[in-house]
Amino acid sequence: MIYSTALQDHGLPHDPFKAIVAPRPIGWIGAISGRGEVNLSPYSFFNAVSSRPHIVMFSSEEKKDAVAFIEETGEFTCSLATKALARQMNMTSAPLPRGQSEFGHAGLAMAPSKFIRPPRVAASPAALECKLLSVQQLVDLDGQAIPRWLVLGQVVGIFIDEAYLRDGRFDTAGANPIARCGYADYAEVESLFSITRPPGG
Ligand SMILES: Cc1cc2nc3c(=O)[nH]c(=O)nc-3n(C[C@H](O)[C@H](O)[C@H](O)COP(=O)(O)O)c2cc1C
Question: How many domains does the chain have?
Answer without folding.
Answer: 1
